[in-house]
Amino acid sequence: MLKKFHTLKRVFLTYGVAEVIRLIYRKSFQTKDSSTFTEGILFESSTRFMTTFADNPSEAQEVFSLNNNSRSGFFGPIYDLGPELSASLLGVLMMTRPTLVIETGVAAGKSTNLILNQLRLNDQGRLVSIDVTINVGELVEPQNRFLWDLEVLPSLLRQHRFESLLRKHSAAQIFLHDSDHSVKWQLFEIKKVTEVLRRVSYILVDDIQPAVASFLISKFGIANCFFFDELGRKKSLVVRTSVQD
């Protein structure tokens, strides 16, 4: 109980009272996804994924090892992308050399900085991050911030604002979900991405919910869905869409 109280206090100090209410609601009233992953899916290795899709897997590993800065804020390593999805993300960025990337959920900013490092090495591209507070991104290094735009969702009309931001940045080629992992929000977010981002080549989802996985499989085919087991703690997914540069 004391641990939960400290968590609520940290959420309040970082996000405000609205996010405390949302957290209590999700924990107390929302039903969990009782579905299971589609039978027959195979879990990939990020090493094999990068070997297949990246020109230089060793370079991807080098970038992956960058930024070991210490943290002082709310967000610990538990909020980071899993290692499999992080490495696969780098492979996608190296292969596609995107001009625009969108991510939802920044936390300490480890994946944010990872993306920005690779965009800088690519010598092109910008990252738009969407979160619910400006108090994120402590790990984003100063030399990368000129490539970064942080958009903050309001407490009210959050879905409307999210869709507006997608339409504003509809040319994005890569989309990464790492925000609210509840079934309701994750499914809303991913469905809007498939509707609005007509040029998106890869959709990456951290802590994928089975219902969302089923939606993406039905839309893009299981052959284009690459699942990863993040050390047994959670599952992640990379989806290759029909749009390829």
Topology:
Blueprint: H1 2-15, H2 17-28, H3 46-53, H4 57-64, H5 83-96, E1 100-104, H6 110-122, E2 126-131, E3 148-152, H7 158-168, E4 174-177, H8 183-196, E5 202-205, H9 210-220, E6 225-230, E7 234-240
Overview of this structure, please?
- With 245 residues, the chain is of the alpha/beta class.
- Helices cover 43% and strands 15% of the residues.
- Strands 3-2-1-4-5-7-6 form a seven-stranded mixed β-sheet, with helices on both faces.
- Helix 6 links the parallel strand 1 and strand 2.
- The protein is globular.
- Mean pLDDT is 82; it is low at 25-31.
Q: Can you summarize this structure?
A:
This protein is α/β, with parallel strands linked by helices and 245 residues long.
CATH superfamily of the largest domain: Vaccinia Virus protein VP39
Which residues form runs of ≥5 with pLDDT under 50?
A: 25-31
* Computed structural class: alpha/beta
Mean pLDDT: 82
CATH topology of the largest domain: Rossmann fold
Helix content: 40-55%
**What is the molecular shape?**
globular
CATH class of the largest domain: Alpha Beta
- Backbone CA Rg: 17 Å
**End-to-end distance, in Å?**
51 Å
Strand order of the largest sheet: 3-2-1-4-5-7-6
Question: How would you characterize the largest beta sheet?
Answer: 7 strands, mixed
Please tally the β strands and state the result. 7
- What order do the SSEs take from the amino end to the carboxyl end, as H and E? HHHHHEHEEHEHEHEE
Overview features:
245 residues; alpha/beta; Rossmann fold; 2 domains; 7-stranded mixed sheet; globular
